[in-house]
TrEMBL record:
Pfam families: Tropomyosin. Residues 97-123 are annotated as: Disordered. InterPro entries: Tropomyosin. This is Tropomyosin. It comes from Mortierella polycephala. Keywords: Coiled coil. Gene3D superfamilies: 1.20.5.340.
Amino acid sequence: MEVFKKKLELLRREADTALTRAETAERDLEAAKADIAAKDQETISFNNRISLLESQLEKAEVTGGDSKNKLREVELRVEDLERKIKSLEKERDNLETKLEAKTEEHNKIKSELDETMKAMDDM
């Protein structure tokens, strides 16, 4: 009977040890589940942030594309205006040359008129 009691005591200790290990394992399992839930939430948060950033990137690309198109339009308009400026400057230079020629011609004719008037006065 003594052997039986010792064996029973040994089995009780083993059962207590197993129970303690089981309780520890359950606590560890609960902690792991909590960690997994937290990581899942963090993953969801990161996925939402990624979606938001992708959306912002798409919007920026569209806006950037629009800006590039507008910039190109402005550049073309500037080039067109620069050509018009050059054309107008050339026309102005031609008109200034004509004005100088006409001014010289006017002064020459005026001088001739003055001489003719002086000659008529002298008569």
